[in-house]
Amino acid sequence: MRNIAIVASILLALLASCAGGEAYYNISGAGVEAGDTLYLYGLDRRYEYMDTILADEEGAFDYDVYADTVFPLSLLMPSGKAILLFAEPATAATVVPDSVQQGKWMVKGGRLQHLYDSMAARIESLPLAKRFEEIDSFVRRDPMNEVNIMLWRRYLVESPKPEMRNMRSVANLFGGRLNDDDYVEDFQELVDKKRSLATVIYSSVPVFNFVAIDDSTKISNARYREKFLVLNFWASWDSLSCERMKQMSSMYVRFKADELMMLNVSLDHDTAQWRQKVLADSILGDNVCDLKMWDNILVKRYDVNSLPYSVLVNPQLLNISYDTNPEKLDASLDSIMGVYKKNKETSDKRRKKKK
Predict the structure, then answer these.
(1) Is 136 part of a structural domain of the chain?
(2) Domain residues for 53?
(3) Which of 201, 235, 250 is where one domain is finished?
(4) What is the CA angle 127-133-135, rounded to 5?
(5) CA distance linking residue 252 with residue 250, whole number of Å
(6) Could you give the CA distance from residue 282 to residue 292 in angstroms, rounded to a whole number?
(7) Is the dihedral of CA 342, 344, 350, 353 positive or negative?
(8) What is the pLDDT of residues 220-255, one digit of tens each?
(9) pLDDT tens-digit profile of 81-98?
(10) Which of 24, 93, 173, 233 could staple 309 via S-S, CB 3.0–4.6 A?
């Protein structure tokens, strides 16, 4: 019985120690002004709080964060500089001014912190085109490393020139818990949404029925068969939209009505204001407004979430391009039409030979 009691005491002591300091991440440092406030906040749902850290009279600070698992934090310094930290259980990190570069800070302590800072220094010295290769190679060597997500976020997703292909490629390499990271899951949802939108973009125009601004002309899919169509989404209350429609009208006069048509779908809620704007700006093409605004069938089908927005449709009512601007469209329409006509002629000849 005595041996059992001893073993039980040892186990209780071990459990107590595990519930204590080993579940904390300590942040300390110096070099700020006396009484300065530092802000600490989490970068994912594992730590969703914002805490304030007050510096003492000597400009030093010390703070403990409960950490039963690894998660990323951002420490906002009084100067506005944000420092990325990796909260590891039973780890201490010291934040000190960089002795070489004024205004920068160094973080000492933590295996993941050292690994991330080393990789970040290496990546930042590379041109944007080379950063993907470096991150891709790093992730392949250790797919389940927590550092992977922050490198991916900072240098690919939040890059000045993000490329969806590179972001997807690296995200697909993540292993283990990294696949369940909320930031990665949000990204995958965005990718799925874009894929869903791409399916819409490269499919046919949905069936629709409107009445034109003259209150008598019926507007439907059949009206635009055998012709190229520019589908514009706009509103008289949106200044950018109004400017876009003027540009589209100027472009439109360059083409014959039997080759190119325009359908301008307004998201207005006031038909009087809409009619006045159409007439005042001489907006050409078929103008419609069903007062459904963001619930309009075409607005919903094309996932329009901002104005202006334009789609180019071919004579088979298949979408060619979307969110296109007048300058690019005007420069490419002749070529697009020419290629289409040539392909159609070739196709017609083949059909005749088969007969």
Answers:
(1) yes
(2) 22-107
(3) 201
(4) 95
(5) 5
(6) 23
(7) negative
(8) 988 988 889 999 999 999 999 999 999 999 999 888
(9) 899 999 999 999 999 998
(10) 233
